[in-house]
Write a structure and sequence with these properties.
Blueprint lengths: L1 E5 L2 E8 L2 E6 L13 E3 L2 E3 L6 E3 L5 E3 L8 E7 L2 E5 L2
Antiparallel strand pairs: 1-2, 2-3, 3-8, 4-5, 5-6, 6-7, 8-9
Protein name: 3-phenylpropionate/trans-cinnamate dioxygenase ferredoxin subunit
Keywords: 2Fe-2S, Dioxygenase, Iron, Iron-sulfur, Metal-binding, Oxidoreductase
Pfam family, one: Rieske
């Protein structure tokens, strides 16, 4: 995973076996950068309190997180990755 910034908004970009995914980089529970956490089988763990999110859907999958993170469509063209930020 990697943090990228688009229009002053931090986005987390994930590369999984089945493709690329993007979410807001901020945990909805702790307002902390998810890219500072860990990624395992498509689930990112926030390092602040251990809440977890499915990076494919944005769904919160482990307490204390209950609100999903925003997701963004990703398109790969050759060697370039595009994030649909709008």
């Amino acid at each position: 995973m990697k943090q990228v910034t688009v229009d002053d908004v931090d986005i987390a970009l994930y590369h999984l076996e089945d493709g690329f995914y993007a979410t807001s980089d901020l945990c909805t529970h702790a307002d902390y950068h998810l890219t500072r956490g860990t990624l395992y089988r498509g689930v990112v763990t926030c390092p602040r309190h251990g809440g977890k999110f499915d990076v494919r859907t944005g769904a919160a999958v482990a307490f204390p997180c209950v609100m999903p993170v925003e997701t963004y469509a990703v398109d790969v063209r050759g060697d370039e990755v595009y994030i649909d930020f709008e």
